[in-house]
Design a protein that fits this description.
By secondary structure, the protein is an alpha/beta fold. It contains 11 helices and 14 strands. The strands form 3 sheets. It has a 10-stranded mixed β-sheet with strand order 4-3-2-6-7-8-9-10-11-13. The protein has a two-stranded antiparallel sheet with strand order 1-5. The protein has a two-stranded antiparallel ribbon with strand order 12-14. α9 packs parallel to α10. The chain binds iron/sulfur cluster (SF4) (2 copies). One iron/sulfur cluster (SF4) binds next to α1. The site of one iron/sulfur cluster has 14 residues, from α1.
Length: about 325
């Protein structure tokens, strides 16, 4: 019998980008449609194209953007039964990714957003579209996850209004990526099921400035401390290991010392995505000293009772010893 596939993300996700929408989290690969004019945004068209993709997978044909992805699954009897229970919410969106703005108040050396979307102005406003999706009953409020990517939310003028619109309805979970250069009081309203991720990538002002091209390390640390003290939100304090920039134990130790001093932060470790999935076909051999850094982090966190995790894609690269 021919194989048949399904992808849960494809069925539930709407990812708003500056030039269109995708049906999953990836802004580099994945599948979606271009939208010429967001003033004429047509959800029926978006759903109809998505259903074509669902049908392709069902027929065992993988769209180009899905090849190599690990998220699609083979359809089994069990998944078919589960999908029967979901019929009621068919066509409803339970994951909205807000990524239509790529403007930011810093300029990280590793940033892919500005390379992929060099436009310096925001193409369209999302709020009217979200309002219309609610009005026309396209959103599964009971299960809704709202994720702000970007760009940086502090330069997204619509941010407070979008938050207010979502708060007028039910949201199960928020995920917000922010560089925390500016303090956003709206984040204080998030709860313990929600996540704010801040990629600091440095333990000192000098290294931060070299990586982010802005002198804002002290402000970021104070804003992290303030949000930690003023909210229950889960805070991810992230360090992306960047070759020849912050890949040394001294810098990592300073970064961890700050986490220990503030308390209540979950440390996340990653490897520069330019060395891994952003350059397919180019082999990246993990330098030996990366393993020493990871061992140091592991020992430090255990000794000081700090929670930490390594991003699955980075762990996969570390396990293999290379990425290509
Ligand atoms: S299989 Fe992967 S690339 Fe394709 S829609 Fe699902 S998550 Fe996106
Ligand atoms: S904070 Fe994010 S969006 Fe801004 S420059 Fe850095 S990587 Fe790019």
């Amino acid at each position: 019998m021919e194989k048949s596939y399904y992808c849960e993300k494809l069925e539930n996700t709407l990812h708003f980008l500056p030039d269109g929408v995708k049906y999953c989290c990836s802004c580099t690969e994945g599948i979606g449609i271009k939208v010429e004019d967001f003033n004429k945004f047509d959800m029926k068209e978006v759903i109809s194209k998505r259903d074509d993709y669902i049908k392709s997978l069902k027929n065992g044909e993988l769209p180009k953007g899905c090849i190599g992805c690990t998220d699609y699954k083979e359809i089994t009897m069990k998944s078919q039964i589960l999908s029967l229970f979901k019929l009621f919410n068919k066509n409803k969106i339970s994951h909205i990714i807000i990524d239509h703005f790529k403007q930011c108040d810093c300029n990280c050396t590793y940033c892919a957003q500005k390379k992929l979307f060099p436009n310096t102005t925001q193409n369209y406003e999302l709020l009217p579209i979200i309002k219309s999706l609610y009005k026309n009953n396209y959103i599964n409020s009971q299960q809704l996850k709202v994720e702000f990517q970007g760009g940086n939310v502090s330069v997204l003028k619509e941010f407070p209004l979008l938050m207010q619109e979502f708060k007028n309805h039910k949201v199960k979970e928020y995920v917000v990526l922010s560089n925390m250069i500016q303090y956003l009081p709206e984040l204080e309203t998030l709860g313990e099921n929600d996540i704010v991720t801040v990629s600091v990538d440095a333990g000192s002002r000098e290294t931060f400035q070299r990586i982010k091209n802005v002198d804002a390390f002290d402000a970021v640390i104070e804003n992290i401390r303030k949000l930690r003290n003023n909210s229950k939100v889960q805070m991810q304090y992230k360090y992306i290991i960047l070759h020849n920039q912050n890949d040394n134990i001294e810098e990592v130790k300073k970064f961890l010392d700050i986490a220990k001093e503030i308390g209540g932060l979950h440390i996340v470790i990653d490897i520069d995505y330019n060395d891994t999935f952003m350059t397919p076909g180019v082999r990246f051999d993990v330098p030996k000293h990366y393993y020493d850094i990871i061992k140091f982090i592991d020992d430090y966190c255990k000794e000081n009772y700090l929670g930490y995790s390594i991003r699955p894609s980075a762990q996969n690269t570390l396990d293999k010893g290379y990425s290509e």
